[in-house]
Design brief:
3 helices
């Protein structure tokens, strides 16, 4: 079964080379598509890092506030 799928995939790529070149990563796309792809990639790379950084900042700020309240009550 795997060999049939591999053979069909290879056959599709050989028969339709323009489909294989349609990817913006391959360099076949126009500049607008490339720029959009690069922007989207950067955005999706930094989004989780930003969310994690904000969560860490809020956690530390909350911990400092709690620590200050404990010190005030002593």
């Amino acid at each position: 079964m795997r060999s049939i799928v591999a053979t069909l995939t290879l056959l599709c790529l050989v028969i339709a080379p323009r489909v294989a070149e349609a990817c913006s990563v391959c360099g076949a796309a126009d500049d607008k598509t490339k720029n959009t792809f690069i922007f989207t990639t950067a955005f999706l790379t930094f989004l989780p890092l930003t969310i994690g950084g904000i969560a860490l900042f809020l956690f530390i700020r909350k911990a400092k506030r709690i620590d200050n309240e404990i010190d005030r009550h002593r």
